[in-house]
Design a protein that fits this description.
- The complex is a heterotrimer.
- Chain A is built from ten helices and ten strands.
- Chain A is an alpha/beta fold.
- Chain A has two domains: about 170 residues, Rossmann fold (3-Layer(aba) Sandwich); about 80 residues, no CATH class.
- In chain A, a hairpin with a 2-residue loop joins strand 9 and strand 10.
- Chain A is globular, with a radius of gyration of 19 Å.
- Chain B has twelve helices and four strands.
- In chain B, the strands form two sheets. In chain B, strands 1-4 form a two-stranded antiparallel sheet. In chain B, strands 2-3 form a two-stranded antiparallel sheet.
- In chain B, strand 2 and strand 3 form a beta hairpin.
- Chain B is globular.
- Chain B starts with a helix and ends in a 15-residue tail after the last helix.
- By secondary structure, chain C is an all-alpha fold.
- Chain C contains 14 helices and two strands, in the order H-H-H-H-H-H-E-H-H-H-H-E-H-H-H-H.
- In chain C, helix 11 packs across helix 12.
- The radius of gyration of chain C is 20 Å and the shape is globular.
- Classes of the chains: A alpha/beta, B mainly alpha, C mainly alpha.
- At the B-C interface, helix 4, helix 5, helix 10 and helix 12 of B face helix 6, helix 11 and helix 14 of C.
């Protein structure tokens, strides 16, 4: 049964004189991989910044699983089920891979400082739990053998995957991936596609921003197109590929070589 | 709290406030220019100013003008003072360029964290202060009275003396020169470009290292000139003079909007006036607390300052 | 020098990892024993000219160490540059002075009060200031430190410029006598509190708060995207750092017996900062090492003492340019053996 998880309603964002997003509406349903594409500067990352609470929109609202998230702080939104990765990898470089994921996993428990200090039972349980969750996620993503390595010493591909594992630790209802395939070779892109599908099959929806068209068309259930802050298309990959407006604005003729 | 002083001495306080503000402005410009270009608070800029004051004193030593000699005749004064201000400006300018090269350049090239740059700046500031404290044996340095300070003009309660006129005239000239530099020269263009967007400036062919060095040089020269006016007006200095003058100048820069050249001027005059008025009402020894409180308040309430630029947020 | 400290750290780390609980316990006991025994050792090699070694152990050594650990939570672990740390030290000292002179409250209660007031100050300063970032925050903390000092100078009620004297020492505990000549008792008292402190801080560091603080230091925005309540944790870091500074202040005042505002200058804040920076930002053992080194050497090498601040300043510039992570960086040794069983 399909239900709307992430509901973005009429979001308008203006930075000074520039309208970054103009009355944008979009939705992500459960068990769905949706993609957000468009030329550079179209406003894609701005969408992520708005729904994760980094900026406030000038107008509009957004909800996750019926709960209004507008006005909430980033860490509250993260705990409510929206977690993201970043265009330029932003890991906690001087912390180990395990600690990176564990920090996010910590976000879900309510243990506080005093509890941690005095070693109360709940605190110790939470500690054990977050560590296990972190190991499981690292294992899921194929990085458990590097758990003790510092994040900044990991190879590029592993860093990108670690970011995904970290975001997954928040048990997001919708996982937001910002150009996860940047810098990957075709093989790595295939693996990434498989990973994204695995994530969807495990129960998380995915909203991804990506420039690599073959990956997008291959993996997405639905594609939404932004151009200069306006949504100009929203449909299956096939529909979008053939949409004249999209071709004019962005795609040109798409080579489908899968 | 004595408000009657405020009313009876209003003109005098206002005039003095503007004079002091002019001196602060010359130092504040250094903070604001460097911040604009590097987004770094040059903690050691106060010591660049202090070095200027010490240089002024050094020149009087070389010229054999002792602290208790009679004021000079106008013609001699002009020559002597020109010598002093030029030497101080050069000394401070060179000190500033050296400071950038030794304490900041490597960190900028390595793209080190802001924390590292700040700590390096603080270390440099402390090193220089201590160095001069040891050199001066922690003593106050007395500067000779080079010019007669009998009031030339008296307006209401204000005693307008030659040294104050000198400060106002000299500072005005420097502001005009700076304005030309920033707005009508290639260097000024480079400074404005790097302040706006360093990456794009590099792509447009701007030599950022050179712009940064020159910015420090300009800031240093202005501070050096300011130090000469300071010495003419206050006639004393010590190793840690940089700290208090620096705090005032920095507060002025923040008050006006750090990174904003016009803001540095507005903030400096505003602070000069506030300091004079509050000293009259609260007593002189609360002046520094007032300055700190203003600094803290501005940072808390309106960190962008009166004319400020928008505080940059990291793009995510 | 660089290779040496890295090798030592790694060799020690390897040994530690492979050693049993018994071995580790013995190591700890021996180490602690040595530190307790220090005031009793009368050896010209470690003796300091001019001031007695015993008194140096108390101030600056253990006092610096305590404060460095406190400041480390703020600056080293969380990345919040605090330039006014001396204010907390001053608040603790003045609390001991005022309550000690004018009331009959027991030393231990005053100790808690001192820490409490410092924590309150941390909250008052932190709530507005921690909304800002980097440089602006640093400036505000500096302003705060200076305001505290200038207010102290100008407020006759707490002694004004001449300060307060006849501060009572702590009450004798069993055989431990606290008197001006016997600084060793103060040292031992501080050492005990210091060990308790370390236990607490290390524990916090290994758990959720420690990770939250480090994440904030690494990338504050991303930390909040990952569910870390950044403001709350920054405030906690500030408050904990303040409490520790306050604790040091109370003990210090009870030893020097008279305090003046000039004792609590920006210089002292910078010296503690230098310990944190020098030893290894974020690494508690490095920071302690830094405090010991920077406290002991200027006393041992008397000619250094006069130019102590000169050296601190130079050190900070050099350290940041060459080894921004300090002598014994917090860089964790990679534990390749971490795996889910």
């Amino acid at each position: 049964m399909s239900q709307v998880l992430l509901d973005i309603e009429n979001i308008t964002v203006k930075f000074g004189g520039v309208t970054a997003l103009n009355n944008v509406m979009m939705q992500v349903k459960n068990n769905e991989i949706a993609a957000l594409i468009g030329p550079n500067g179209a406003g894609k990352t701005t969408v992520f910044n708005i729904i994760t609470g980094y900026y406030q929109p000038n107008e509009g609202n957004f909800k996750l699983d019926g709960q209004t998230l507008l006005g909430k702080k980033p860490h509250q939104i993260a705990r409510s089920g929206l977690a993201r990765t970043f265009q330029n990898i932003r890991l906690f470089g001087d912390m180990t891979a395990l600690e990176n994921v564990q920090t996010a996993a910590d976000g879900l428990n309510k243990s506080g400082l005093v509890g941690s200090l005095f070693g109360v039972t709940r605190s110790r349980k939470d500690e054990k739990q977050s560590k296990e969750t972190a190991h499981e996620l690292l294992d899921f993503i194929g990085l458990d053998h590097r758990a003790g390595q510092l994040a900044r010493n990991l190879p590029y591909g592993d860093q990108r995957r670690l970011e995904i594992a970290r975001a997954l630790a928040l048990k997001p209802k919708v996982l937001l991936l910002d150009e996860p395939a940047a810098g990957f070779n075709p093989q790595e892109k295939n693996d990434l596609g498989a990973l994204i599908r695995k994530i969807r099959d495990k129960g998380n929806s995915v909203l991804l921003i990506e420039h690599d068209m073959s990956l997008v068309m291959d993996v997405s259930d639905r594609v939404m197109v932004l151009d200069f802050g306006n949504k100009i298309a929203d449909g299956t990959p096939k529909e979008v590929q053939n949409d004249q407006r999209v071709i004019d604005a962005y795609l040109g003729v798409v080579e489908n070589d899968s | 709290m004595d408000f009657s002083v405020l009313t009876s001495e209003f003109v005098s306080l206002t005039f003095d406030g503007i004079v002091v503000g002019a001196i602060y402005a010359l130092v504040a410009l250094g903070y604001t220019l460097v911040y604009g270009v590097l987004r770094l608070i040059n903690f050691a800029h106060s010591e660049i100013f202090m070095i200027g004051t010490m240089t002024c004193y050094g020149v009087t030593l070389l010229l054999n003008i002792a602290a208790d000699t009679d004021p000079l005749s106008p013609q001699v004064f002009i020559i002597v003072f020109t010598l002093i201000i030029v030497t101080a400006a050069v000394a401070s300018g060179l000190a500033a360029v050296t400071l950038e090269f030794v304490a900041y350049r490597r960190l900028r090239v390595m793209r080190a964290s802001r924390l590292s740059s700040l700590i390096s700046a603080i270390g440099a500031s402390f090193f220089l202060t201590e160095l001069f404290r040891l050199l001066t044996d922690s003593k106050n340095i007395a500067f000779p009275r080079l010019i007669d300070k009998e009031p030339v003009l008296v307006i209401s309660s204000a005693y307008i003396t030659l040294d104050k006129i000198l400060v106002l005239l000299g500072a005005s000239v420097l502001f005009i020169v700076l304005n030309r530099l920033i707005n009508h020269t290639k260097l000024g263009l480079g400074i404005r470009a790097v302040s706006q967007d360093e990456n794009t400036a590099v792509l447009m062919g701007v030599n950022v290292n050179r712009v940064v060095s020159m910015t420090f040089l300009v800031g240093g020269v202005l501070a050096g000139a300011g130090s000469a006016f300071y010495m003419a007006f206050y006639e004393t200095t010590k190793a840690n003079v940089g700290f208090l003058v620096g705090v005032s100048a920095f507060t002025a820069a923040v008050l006006g909007g750090i990174g904003n050249v016009k803001g540095a001027l507005v903030g400096s005059f505003a602070l000069g006036l506030i300091q004079q008025y509050s000293s009259a009402v609260l007593g002189y020894n609360w002046r520094d607390v007032v300055t700190f409180i203003i600094l803290v308040l501005v940072l808390l309430v309106k960190p962008t300052g009166l004319l400020g630029e928008a505080l940059q947020r990291a793009r995510v | 020098m660089k290779l040496l400290s890295f090798n030592l750290r790694d060799k020690f780390g390897d040994w530690w990892d492979s050693s049993s609980l018994l071995q580790r316990t013995i190591f700890r006991v021996v180490l602690i024993g040595i530190f307790f025994a220090l005031p009793l050792i009368n050896n010209p090699i470690i003796d300091t000219p001019e001031t007695s070694f015993e008194s140096v152990l108390f101030y600056p050594l253990i006092m610096f160490a305590i404060m460095a650990v406190g400041l480390n939570v703020v600056v080293g672990k969380s990345g919040i540059l605090d330039l006014g740390y001396v204010a907390f030290f001053a608040i603790g000292a003045y609390t001991q002075a005022m309550f000690g002179i004018y009331t009959d409250l027991s030393f231990w209660i005053v100790l808690l009060l001192g820490m409490g007031f410092a924590m309150i100050a941390g909250v008052i300063l932190g709530i507005p200031a921690l909304r800002l970032r980097g440089d602006y925050l640093a400036i505000i903390t500096l302003g705060f430190g200076e305001i505290v000092r200038i207010v102290a100078v100008n407020t006759e009620a707490i002694g004004g410029a001449s300060g307060l004297s006849d501060i009572p020492p702590p009450p004798n505990i069993n055989f431990l006598e606290f008197s001006v000549q016997e600084t060793r008792s103060y040292y031992w008292l501080s050492l005990v509190l210091f060990l308790v402190l370390i236990l607490g801080i290390v524990r916090l560091g290994n758990r959720k708060p420690g990770r939250a603080w480090e994440a904030i230091r690494e990338d504050e925005d991303v930390a909040s995207f990952m569910g870390v309540a950044t403001f709350k944790y920054k405030l906690w870091a500030f408050v904990i750092g303040g409490a520790i500074g306050g604790m040091a202040g109370v003990i210090y005042a009870s030893q020097v017996l008279s305090i003046q505002p000039e004792l609590f200058t920006l210089n002292l804040s910078i010296m503690i900062l230098a310990c944190v920076v020098f030893g290894g930002m974020g690494n508690i053992w490095g920071v302690i090492f830094g405090a010991v080194l920077l406290g002991y050497l200027p006393e041992k090498l008397r000619f250094l003492s006069d130019i102590r601040i000169l050296i601190f300043g130079l050190l900070m510039v050099v350290m940041m340019n060459i080894r921004p992570n300090g002598l014994i960086p917090r860089k964790k040794r990679e534990k390749i053996s971490e795996k889910l069983k």
